[in-house]
Amino acid sequence: MPYAYRKSERLRKNSDFVATMKGKRLSQDGLSLFYRKNGADGFRVGISVGKKLGNAVARNRLRRQLRDCIGRVLGDLTAGFDLVFVARKELSGRDFSGVLRVVTRILQRSDVLGPRSKGNAL
To answer: d(Cα 42, Cα 56) in Å, to the nearest integer?
Structure first.
């Protein structure tokens, strides 16, 4: 069964989304990541998938894939960031391994996983 985020691990209010989206931004292969420090010791994650990406079944599938990939990449890290993932049209046609690859790359490029090590690109 895929991992379900607890309420304390989710961004739920529009004001939280807006505040996070005013932080740093990275985009790659149809996925945008907005992130900022939240002062806590854990992550809070929000996922946005617009109606242009397909019907409800396709959007929910992509949302579930993103949630699973984020859980796999972040694992048990406790770094205190708010993260908002915004899916774009290019991401909707990919299979699970492609989505996992994009999520891994974008999180490695960000400051979320810690200091970047040189020569460690996927």
So the answer is: 30
The answer as to whether 84 is a domain residue is yes
CA 70 to chain centre: 6
Write down the pTM of the prediction.
0.86
34-79 per-position pLDDT tens digit = 999 988 778 889 999 999 999 999 999 999 999 999 989 888 776 7
* Dihedral (Cα; 85, 92, 7, 110), 10-degree rounding: -30
Distance, in Å, from the CA atom of 37 to the CA atom of 30, rounded to the nearest integer, reads 24
User: Does residue 1 fall inside a structural domain?
Assistant: no
Which residues span the domain enclosing 36? 7-109
- Considering the domain boundaries, does residue 115 fall inside one? no
Nearest-10 crossing angle of helices 56-74, 96-109 = 50
The CATH code of the domain that includes 39 is 3.30.230.10
